[in-house]
Every structure is written in structure tokens, then in C-alpha cells.
Amino acid sequence: MIYIGCHLSVADGYAAMGQTMRDMGGNTFAWFTRNPRGGKSKDVPPDDIAALLRLAKEAGFGPLVAHGSYTMNLCSQNPDTRKNGFEMLTGDLARMALLPGQLYNFHPGAHTGQGADAGIAQIADALRAALPAAGETYVLLETMAGKGSEVGGSFEELKAVIDRFEPDEKLGVCLDTCHVWDAGYDIVNDLDGVLTRFDQIIGLGRLKAVHFNDSKNGRGSHKDRHEKLGLGQIGKDALRRVARHPALQGLPFILETPNDDAGYRREIEEVKSWFD
Ligand code: FE
Ligand code: FE
Ligand code: ZN
To answer: Residue 118 Cα, ligand 1 centroid: separation in angstroms?
Structure first.
């Protein structure tokens, strides 16, 4: 058994996403809390949310994983961009309160030349101000490929953010297989070693979700170009070992592979077959 799904469009509402994913054979999904490139998000009708929660319970769905906007940057050098990012974060968390106990993942940010330490401090400051409103939502920092000035390309950088909070704070990590590979972690030849390092630095108890992708590029490329499962440099055998790793059982696995709906259906089917 695995919780597997993909990103869906929220355009037709929340219950529609649940129905679509059930039709696709999956049992979790992700959605962008607003347009991936930023902009206003629609208001959330409570009936629609209630219908989704009912369906998710009936169908035995795992945790759902909302994704913050790509344009949200909590550690830009530009104060207006930071302020805008903070407003997106608090707005997203207010909406997530309607979906209690689910996950909200976001890209920690890009320090745009200030240096990682300054970026880490600004991300932590924004989270400190926003987390009290998060309620039952677990907020997840995504592991990044380390492209440009991205913060979060190493477990140590994520830990540096998390370290500024109390141990019981609902703050965790979403591990993106393409990103950690591109950041240099060898999940192909040394998956145990990578997860042991994650455990030693961050703690596996903080790992709440997986973004399940192959990568177009080699280890350490810092490129962040996702590929369909088995068509990239990580490869199907290694991805199967990730999905079946004892330390990762029970987590929601979200496909962010370059696919249409039919492609996602096939990948969901295949990943499920690894557990037969
Ligand atoms: Fe992401
Ligand atoms: Fe991702
Ligand atoms: Zn990516």
C-alpha cells in the first residue's frame, strides 16, 4: 500500500479534485493554492471542502499536500517581494485551516544574493510570524535542487530554519527526489546513506511527504528539470527502492512528472503495482 497521486487543478473546486484522483486510481493529491505563477486565489466554499473531506475519508486517502506559489519568496533581497510572499503565506494558511490536518508545502525561497544565512533568517522570521495561524496544518519546507540562490539545497540549510523553532512546532520537510538528486544526494547508489543523513541532520520524524520525480540531469547538476519515472537519470529501479523504503512508508508520494492525465494514470498504476 502506498499513498500515491499527482498535482491536480483546483479550477473545478476541491471535491472535484478528490473525484478526479479516485478515478485516476490514486489516493492523495497536490494542488497549487493559487495560480503557480502567483496571483489571487479563489475563495473556498465550505460545502465543497466538506464534500472533499468526506470523499477522502471514504476512499481511504492519505494526507493531501497543498503547494505554495512558485513566486512566493520569503527571503528575496527586495522587501516588496518578501512582503508579498508573506501575504501569500498567511493567506494560504488561512485557507488551509478549512482542511485541518493536511500538509502545506512551499519552496523556502531564493536569497537573491544576500547569502544563505541571511535567507535562512528571513525565512524563519516569516514562518515565526505566520505559523500561529497554521492551526492543524503541517507546514513543509521542500528540499531544493540548489539552483541559483535557492535556499534548501542541503539538509543543513533546512535544519538551520527548523532549528529556530520549538521541537513541537508543526514544521516539517517534503523530500523531492529530483531535487535532492540534482542537489547531489546519491539516492541511486546510497539511498540508505542519504536517509540516514536526513535522519541525523533533520530527523525522519519531520519528513511528511515525498515529491516523486525522475530527473533529466545528472546528480549534482543543480538544474531542477523533472522527468517521467524511469526516463531520467535516477531511473526506475532506484525510484522503486525509494517508494518501498521502510523509512518512507505511510507518506504521501506526489508525482510532479511532465505528464498529461493519461500519463499520470499510468504512473499511479505502476507505482501501486510495486506493492502487490
Ligand atoms: Fe515544489
Ligand atoms: Fe517538488
Ligand atoms: Zn522541481
So the answer is: 22
Residue 242 lies in a domain: yes
Q: What's the 253 CA to ligand 2 centre distance in angstroms?
A: 11
| Domain CATH code at residue 76 | 3.20.20.150
CA 189–ligand 1 middle distance (angstroms): 24
Strand partners, 7: 30
Is the pTM higher than 0.90? The answer reads: yes
Q: By the 8 A CB rule, do 180 and 194 touch? A: yes
Note the pLDDT tens digit of each residue in 14-38.
999 999 999 999 999 999 987 655 5
Distance (angstroms) between ligand 2 centre and the Cα of 49 equals 24
Whole-number Å distance, alpha carbon 50 to ligand 1 midpoint, is 26
Q: Residue 180: name the closest of 163, 195, 160 by CA.
A: 195
Residue 268 lies in a domain: no
Q: What is the pLDDT of residues 160-216, one digit of tens each?
A: 999 999 999 999 999 999 999 999 999 999 999 999 999 999 999 999 999 999 999
Number of domains in the chain: 1
- 270 belongs to a structural domain: no
Ligand nearest to the backbone CA of 224: 3
Residue 97: domain span? 3-262
| Ligand lying closest to the C-alpha of residue 107 | 1
**Does some domain include residue 269?**
no
Which residue from 129, 202, 215, 222 is spatially nearest to 162, judged by alpha carbons?
202
